[in-house]
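step=encode ok
step=design start
structure_in=
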């Protein structure tokens, strides 16, 4: 019997402990190794536009092609898919290997990957047999040559064996007082290697959260009872002493100040250790946007003061960046934007960004295109690592249907992270504007104090599948020229829920409501009133097309609004999704929304997932349109609608 079959069998040895070397090897989660390849063939979003696969294989010495057959007759559909994904032979079948030696090396590595996949599915009696050109892999000499016609046949046969469940479970040492069930270790439950490793990590995490950074598993006894198809697990854990943070040492900085980087970790010497604080510190450094990578390494022993030294390794990003972007809608026209920025202006991760945009191309006359430009400055860590100072100047010239608007606005303020999920901000702003709308021509000089609170526990900001985000906004404002004072209030919430374990179906909902109190509609500048309709709110309607209108049919905005949206985000493949949706909204000239005049739009969208967010195309129709409303709307952009 081949060696690997002997290791995985043992039906006549009930209660035999698995060898330590094998256990450690197979219980580690394995990652497939992708071979590097050249870029002679050009691809865009995975679609080959020119070139051939032969171009990519030009750097392979003695290329040898092969064809794989993977047979797992006892495996169900899900396990078969996992095995196929674990097989590098199967995944790289369209690419040759480097000679016979390369094929045998790939096959041996593949067998280990497949064994690990079986163990992850609690198949501890599985047998993996690989033959090349009809000969078992372990019977082939090291210098074997496959000189037959290509592709060389490779056969992978897998007998999965029964699925094991957990048997007796014992936690010993400093983990003796813990309940194994709290960590997923339940007699009769999942015995997959991943479940056991996850439980180990959670147990150690529990002890570390008590301020014990040296907590670790000191002994692991895993016994497979082949007669009963059960796995007995005994884990011994040493908690170690309670300790604080020692010295924080930073390496890898070049243009970013080293002391500033240490300061931004927020790890104060002597403060009790917390694994969550370590994670938050890493996220805080990454959020500075000056580092490509940040790695925290905890020392394996305490210093002379009984504290834990922390090492931080960083690699810096290029400080300067620029970009171009665009949006399109048949109701709003084409929009183009560009920006230039510096991530590390003075060495303390200060940001300077200059941007500009043009919109309404194809929708407005050339003399009525919309322009905006601005400059923004940010400085993190002004009153602690969780704080950020910001200031900016922005100028706008725009001609939406509701008004003509020119303004120059300056603002400065401070934001502060209460914790990883909660952020508050306050600023002082001064806005000079000239506006022509249904009430005539007016000049304003508005002083305001915008205040904002955000709670965000979404699992992803680009493409969330769970969690929710809540925003509360208040802006007291005073017009220095007219003496009018008013308060603008806005609240918004969005929630996301996966309806299946693979997040192929995600239900997304959004609700937004706003109100302006303290003065009449005509005293509120047109650009500060509420509007609804268009790609960012109620799709199917024109931009700002929902709500009260003047005698010419142009929107005048309102003192209140309400919007809601529901989407079902369906993943067709890993990169392509379909999104049916329904939007609704209303705008009122009173400070309370008018729910008797709600406009509803419905449609379907297409998503293409990229590393920088989904590419979005939506098509929608108004369900209760007025004669002035469009018959349909098409919108394109980057990112989910909300």
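sequence_out=
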């Amino acid at each position: 019997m081949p060696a690997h079959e002997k290791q995985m069998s043992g039906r006549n040895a009930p209660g035999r402990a698995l060898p330590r070397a094998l256990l450690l090897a197979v219980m580690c989660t394995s990652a497939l190794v992708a071979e590097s390849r050249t870029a002679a063939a050009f691809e865009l979003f995975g679609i080959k536009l020119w070139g051939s696969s032969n171009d990519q294989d030009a750097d392979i010495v003695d290329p040898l092609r092969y064809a794989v057959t993977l047979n797992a007759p006892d495996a169900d559909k899900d396990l078969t898919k996992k095995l196929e994904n674990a097989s590098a032979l199967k995944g790289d079948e369209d690419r040759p290997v480097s000679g016979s030696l390369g094929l045998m090396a790939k096959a041996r590595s593949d067998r280990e990957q497949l064994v690990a996949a079986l163990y992850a599915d609690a198949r501890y009696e599985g047998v993996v047999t690989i033959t090349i050109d009809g000969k078992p892999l372990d019977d082939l000499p090291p210098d074997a040559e496959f000189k037959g016609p290509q592709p060389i046949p490779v056969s992978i046969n897998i007998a999965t064996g029964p699925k094991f469940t957990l048997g007796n479970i014992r936690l010993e040492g400093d983990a003796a007082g813990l309940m194994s069930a709290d960590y997923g270790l339940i007699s009769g439950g999942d015995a997959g290697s991943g479940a056991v490793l996850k439980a180990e990590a959670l147990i150690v995490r529990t002890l570390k959260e008590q301020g014990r950074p040296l907590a670790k598993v000191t002994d692991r006894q895993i016994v497979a009872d082949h007669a009963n198809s059960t796995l007995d697990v005994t884990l011994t854990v040493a908690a170690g002493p309670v300790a604080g943070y020692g010295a924080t040492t930073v390496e890898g900085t070049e243009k970013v100040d080293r002391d500033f980087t240490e300061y931004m970790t927020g790890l104060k010497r002597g403060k009790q250790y917390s694994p969550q604080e370590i994670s938050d510190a890493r996220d805080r450094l990454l959020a500075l946007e000056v580092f490509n990578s940040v790695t925290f390494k905890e020392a394996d022993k305490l210093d002379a003061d009984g504290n834990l030294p922390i090492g931080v390794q960083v690699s810096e990003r290029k400080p300067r960046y620029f970009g171009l972007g665009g949006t399109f809608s048949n109701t709003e026209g084409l929009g183009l934007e560009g920006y230039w920025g510096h991530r590390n202006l003075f060495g303390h991760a200060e940001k300077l960004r200059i941007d500009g945009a043009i919109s309404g191309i194809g929708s407005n006359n050339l003399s009525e295109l919309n322009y905006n430009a601005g400059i923004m400055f940010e400085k993190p860590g002004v009153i602690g690592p969780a704080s950020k100072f910001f200031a900016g100047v922005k100028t706008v010239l725009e001609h939406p249907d509701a008004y003509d608007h020119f303004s120059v606005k300056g603002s400065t303020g401070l934001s502060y992270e209460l914790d990883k999920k909660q952020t508050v901000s306050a600023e002082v702003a001064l806005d000079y504007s000239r506006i022509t709308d249904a009430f005539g021509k007016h000049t304003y000089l508005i002083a305001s104090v915008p205040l904002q609170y955000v709670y965000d526990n979404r699992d992803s900001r680009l493409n969330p599948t769970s969690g929710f985000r809540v925003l509360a906004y208040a802006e007291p404002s005073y017009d220095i020229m007219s003496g009018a004072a008013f308060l603008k209030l806005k609240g918004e919430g969005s929630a996301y829920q996966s309806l299946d374990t693979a997040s192929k179906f995600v239900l997304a909902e959004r609700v937004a409501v706003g109100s302006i109190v303290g003065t009449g509609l005509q005293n509120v500048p047109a650009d500060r009133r509420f509007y609804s309709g268009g790609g960012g709110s109620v799709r199917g309607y024109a931009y700002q097309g929902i709500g009260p209108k003047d005698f010419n049919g142009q929107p005048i905005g309102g003192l209140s609004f309400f919007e809601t949206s529901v989407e079902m985000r369906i993943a067709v493949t890993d990169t392509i999704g379909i999104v049916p949706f329904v939007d609704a909204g209303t705008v009122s000239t009173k400070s309370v929304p008018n729910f008797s005049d709600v406009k509803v739009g419905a449609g379907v969208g297409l998503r293409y997932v990229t590393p920088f967010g989904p590419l979005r195309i939506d098509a929608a129709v108004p369900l209760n349109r007025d004669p002035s409303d469009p018959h349909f709307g098409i919108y394109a952009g980057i990112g989910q609608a909300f």
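step=design ok
step=annotate ok -> DSSP finds nine helices and 31 strands in the chain.
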